[in-house]
């Protein structure tokens, strides 16, 4: 497997490992404002989706759909944001973020500046999601079993 010295996604799991195989891993990111924030990380160091051969690209997209389906079923968000930025870490990975109109950044991206009033107002939503995290973890594991 190709790795890159100094790449945090090559040298570290990147969060709480939920599932892994030889090609990719599913992790819960440490994002306190967004419990359930999930990343799908390609294990080998490649920068872009187009770097993958067709079969690997299909495998990655299948994994994204599996995570999205579980997120919808267990967390019941109003919307799911999918993002593959890689600006700071040019290692192929996708962010899957459950969103609600009462979350801390809505309707802005989760990377926007925070408004302390919105963060405080979103606390009940965060608490409700945290209660569902054990079921979410288990459902993700089952989806990849």
Could you name the key traits of this structure?
about 140 residues; alpha+beta; HIT family, subunit A; five-stranded antiparallel β-sheet; about 35% helix
Provide structural commentary.
With 145 residues, the chain is α+β, with helices and mostly antiparallel strands. It has one domain (8-144): HIT-like (HIT family, subunit A, 2-Layer Sandwich). It is 37% helix and 19% strand. The chain is built from 4 helices and 5 strands. It has a 5-stranded antiparallel sheet, covered by helices on one side. A hairpin with a 3-residue loop joins strand 1 and strand 2 (24-28). Helix 2 packs across helix 4 (123-144). It is globular, with a radius of gyration of 15 Å.
Write the layout of secondary structure elements.
Layout: H1 8-11, E1 16-20, E2 24-28, E3 38-42, H2 54-75, E4 79-83, E5 93-99, H3 116-121, H4 123-144
Antiparallel strand pairs: 1-2, 2-3, 3-5, 4-5
Write down the Rg. Answer: 15 Å
Q: How do the strands of the widest beta sheet line up side by side?
A: 1-2-3-5-4
User: What is the averaged pLDDT score?
Assistant: 94
What is the tally of helical segments? 4
* Biggest sheet architecture: 5 strands, antiparallel
Q: What is the fourth-level CATH superfamily?
A: HIT-like
* Beta-strand content: 15-25%
Number of domains: 1
Tell me, briefly, the overall form. globular
- What order do the helices and strands follow? HEEEHEEHH
What percent of the residues sit in helical stretches (DSSP H or I)?
25-40%
| Unreliable sequence segments | none
Kindly summarize this structure in a few lines.
This protein is α+β, with helices and mostly antiparallel strands and 145 residues long.
């Amino acid at each position: 497997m190709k790795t890159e010295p100094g790449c945090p996604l090559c040298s570290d799991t990147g969060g709480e490992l939920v599932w892994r195989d030889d090609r990719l891993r599913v992790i819960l990111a440490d994002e306190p404002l967004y419990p359930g924030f999930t990343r799908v990380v390609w294990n080998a160091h490649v920068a872009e989706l187009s770097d993958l051969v067709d079969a690997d690209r299909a495998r990655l997209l299948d994994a994204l759909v599996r995570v999205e389906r579980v997120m919808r079923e267990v967390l019941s968000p109003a919307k799911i944001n999918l993002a593959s930025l890689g600006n700071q870490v040019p290692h192929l990975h996708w962010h899957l973020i459950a969103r609600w109109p009462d979350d801390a950044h809505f309707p802005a991206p989760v990377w926007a500046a925070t408004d302390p009033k919105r963060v405080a107002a979103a606390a009940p939503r965060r608490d409700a999601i945290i209660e569902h995290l054990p079921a979410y973890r288990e459902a993700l594991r089952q989806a990849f079993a």
